[in-house]
Amino acid sequence: MSEPAPDSGTRPADDWWRSAVVYQVYPRSFADADGDGTGDVNGIRARLPYLADLGVDAIWISPWYPSPLLDGGYDVADYRDINPEFGTLADADALIAEAHALGLRILIDLVPNHCSWDHPWFKAALAAGKGSPERDLFWFRDSKDGGPPTNWPAAFGGGAWQQIEDGQWYLHLFDISQPDWNWDNPKVIEEFDAILRFWFDRGVDGFRIDVADSMAKDATLPDVPLHNGEPTREKYVGNPFYDQPGVHTIHKRWRAIADEYADTPQGARVFVAEAWLSPAERLAQYVRPDELQSAFNFDALRATWDAKDLRQVIDHTTENLWAVGAPATWVLSNHDTIRHRTRYGRDKRDALEGAGVVPTDLELGLRRARAAALLELALPGGAYIYQGDELGLPEVEDLPEDVLDDPTWERSGHTVRGRDGCRVPIPWSGTEPPYGFGPGTAQPWLPQPADWSGLTAESQAGDPDSHLSLYKAALRIRHDHPALGAGRLVWDADAPAGVLSFTREPGFRCVVNIGDAPVALPAHERILLASEPLDGQELPVDAAVWLES
């Protein structure tokens, strides 16, 4: 691989995001302060010391806005308030201040593609009638040949258009309850400018942008191609509702707003894009110098536990993002995907199959998850930890059907269980549910497994060999070691087949054995941290080690 221009790895404070480790909080499932079974803002506040002790740099909070919660909060009814089930604006202000006092930055979710059908502007659009200014804030269209305006599919199943009583249809790329904003309308543009400033002025350090590639649409409304007789769901180049050129105009505008805050004590605000785009050349367009600062790297999340596959993803990602001056980001799990302990507990060929499709070896998955954590945190750039990753939580694959909450379950006609298995509330303490999730014995909004007592934060805190202790040690070393964070890597040319081995200057080496047999470690190098006990100078299979020369 060709080496980009040298980088010292040191950055001013305003560039903290280039190497930050960000912890994702899904509010409903993180911690419950009032005992109603639903996580809340004050629950997050109570656990801030835990996150500071863990060693992360920032917290990303999934939507906390008023919402009917038909899509877990990604159906926003008011972008300038807090869901009453989660708390108040005063609680949010206190959380931001307390996090900053602990040295933690706060990112919150921005959901700009769509809102909730409970949003006042959409209610007004329904009432106003055809051709009204209110309807022009959304995508209302008449029938085409007696049916919907296009054949576009919705992400959660079915078609992307819903007909209303007067015969018109509105566009919803996700759930029926989530009408898409019309970003060709200046009023929508100005509204989101104001939303950004509202939260920046309250002290948030940045936003994670939900489906950052979706806001702009091809106004000619062409159909998408068919695949096996059904409208394709692929984000092909030229897709009329994903990765349209107009999204970059929006992002440049937002970057200019964020940069207005550069002279404040907090410095310029930042963005991270959620855009499921491959290959990395397409993603790199979102992080050019005048656009967003960073973007999630989902190619790494989708990679199988295979040395060749992982190295290709690492090379391709870093080369394309470095070419535009942006850092890579690395993520193993999030609120939309099967937890990586479960994915890695499957045969490599089946790692991306749906939950419950193939047998899962959770002990193997845990071993690989430990190795993957050291790989992720050793790579150049930023890293994201989904709540519970540090505890080694698996996917909950056997939730009863009557508790499933994800709209995918309904929209698929009860054929796809959806994402609830990765959203089961965190086990904090105790030996049985609710595991300290909230005060008293109130059960959480999704049931926790009866066998999670050994996975609680309390049970792992005093065990030096626990998954939690591994994360704490890795984050402490990452923070202190001058080679880690921003910078570059160089692959070791003599690494055996099935082994990922790279160095980072000064004096750091990461070795991950994804092969079929133990491998000898380099001599005369000090062991900083290992995911598994070492046999002398040999690294076992499905294990990783950090070394220092």
Write the layout of secondary structure elements.
Elements: E1 21-25, H1 41-46, H2 48-54, E2 58-61, H3 89-101, E3 105-110, H4 120-128, E4 140-141, E5 161-163, E6 169-171, H5 186-201, E7 206-209, E8 226-227, E9 230-231, H6 246-259, E10 270-273, H7 280-284, E11 294-295, H8 298-302, H9 307-322, E12 329-331, H10 340-344, H11 362-378, E13 382-386, H12 407-411, H13 457-461, H14 467-480, E14 490-491, E15 499-504, E16 508-513, E17 519-520, E18 526-530, E19 538-539, E20 543-548
Parallel strand pairs: 1-2, 1-13, 2-3, 3-7, 7-10, 10-11, 12-13
Antiparallel strand pairs: 4-6, 5-6, 8-9, 14-15, 15-16, 16-20, 17-19, 18-20
Helix pairs in contact: 5-6, 11-14
Characteristics of this structure?
549 residues, alpha/beta, eight-stranded parallel beta sheet, five-stranded antiparallel beta sheet, disordered N terminus
Q: What's the gist of this structure?
A:
The protein is of the alpha/beta class and 549 residues long.
Describe what this molecule looks like in 3D.
With 549 residues, this protein is α/β, with parallel strands linked by helices. Helices cover 25% and strands 13% of the residues. The protein has helices spanning 41-46, 48-54, 89-101, 120-128, 186-201, 246-259, 280-284, 298-302, 307-322, 340-344, 362-378, 407-411, 457-461, 467-480, and strands spanning 21-25, 58-61, 105-110, 140-141, 161-163, 169-171, 206-209, 226-227, 230-231, 270-273, 294-295, 329-331, 382-386, 490-491, 499-504, 508-513, 519-520, 526-530, 538-539, 543-548. The chain has an eight-stranded parallel beta sheet. The protein is globular. Mean pLDDT is 93; it is low at 1-12 and 349-353.
